[in-house]
Write a structure and sequence with these properties.
By secondary structure, this protein is of the alpha+beta class. Among the domains are: about 110 residues, Ku70, Chain: A, Domain 2, CATH 2.40.290; about 90 residues, no CATH class. Helices cover about 25% and strands about 25% of the residues. The chain has 6 helices and 11 strands. Helix 3 runs parallel beside helix 5. About 5% of the residues are buried.
């Protein structure tokens, strides 16, 4: 079934404008649970509560507040916030083209596919092919829900993908992290670490070899509960923390048998299958994706 567009817009650079359609690129398959009343099994409804007046309040009684000090706020009406929003504009204005390896993945927030709108097929594929051949991606600005967004557009699988980006001041500096000083690295330790990386290296990325075994275990238990089977949960033994000799650990890791290069995906899948708990079952291929709600 063809993907359904969730919005439309225009990519513009120079004097060129390309009408595009936007599509959902990813969806979460993580297991989620609802909160139920234990006595009757009814879903619990969350309410808005004012602790000062000790009562539930209606949404019509609520205003938005910006906290500038502890427990001190300035309030805004919906009209005031709308007046601050950027002018609605569906144009995605490309500011510059840069090499993809110059953009750190920490700035990526989410992804959408872009497809050509009717009549824009030639210009769309021209941009995608030119970006692919030059090895460049586009940095652009767009307006979404009244707010300016930083986005990146890159060639992907014969077309274009859009990534929403964090702004520079939204990424915390790594220097805030305690690095524990700068320990002196021994040359032989570093050499063993390099060899271990090479031993585990693969020539390409195979995401299909990695599976969410927790989800498999939950789905297997859901199936048993639906069929009325008695379920016994065995607690997984947690590994104990232990002090290790770094050189000895590196040597033992290098001594283990392991596949290299392109042989790793099949070997990794086989090993993962052997490690799977008894309660797990193969993932069902017929399960439909759970989509998040996106607004145009």
């Amino acid at each position: 079934m063809a993907a359904r567009s969730i919005g439309s817009g225009t990519i513009s650079f120079g004097l060129v404008s390309i009408p595009i359609r936007m599509y959902v690129a990813t969806h979460s398959e993580q297991v989620s649970f609802n909160m139920l009343h234990r006595d009757c099994g009814t879903r619990i409804r969350q309410q808005l509560y004012c602790p000062r007046h000790e009562r539930v309040v209606e949404r019509s009684e609520i205003v938005k507040g910006y906290q500038f000090q502890q427990d001190r706020f300035v309030t805004f009406t919906d009209e005031e916030l709308r007046a601050l929003e950027a002018e609605a504009n569906r144009a995605i204005e490309i500011q510059e083209f840069v090499p993809l390896d110059q953009v750190d993945p920490i700035y990526f927030e989410n992804a959408h596919y872009l497809g050509p709108d009717k009549g824009a097929e030639k210009a769309y594929h021209l941009l995608a092919q030119a970006m692919l051949e030059t090895g460049k991606v586009a940095l652009a600005q767009a307006v979404s829900r009244g707010k300016e967004e930083l986005i990146l557009i890159r060639p992907f699988d014969g077309g274009l993908t859009l990534h929403s980006m964090y702004h520079a001041d939204e990424v915390r500096p790594f220097k805030e992290i305690d690095m524990g000083g700068e320990p002196k690295l021994k040359a032989n330790e570093l050499e063993l670490a390099r060899r271990l990386i090479q031993q585990l290296a693969a020539k390409s990325f195979h995401p299909e070899q990695y599976e969410d075994h927790y989800r498999d275990r939950v789905e297997a238990m859901v199936k048993k509960k639906m069929e009325g089977e008695e379920v016994t949960v065995a607690e997984v033994e947690k590994p104990r923390a232990q002090v290790i000799d770094l050189m000895e650990a590196l040597k033992k890791s290098l001594g283990r048998e392991g596949a290299r290069g392109e042989e790793r995906p099949a070997a990794a899948r086989e090993a993962a299958g052997k490690r799977r708990p008894a309660a797990a079952v193969p993932r069902r291929e017929t399960r439909g994706p759970r989509r998040r709600v996106h607004k145009k």
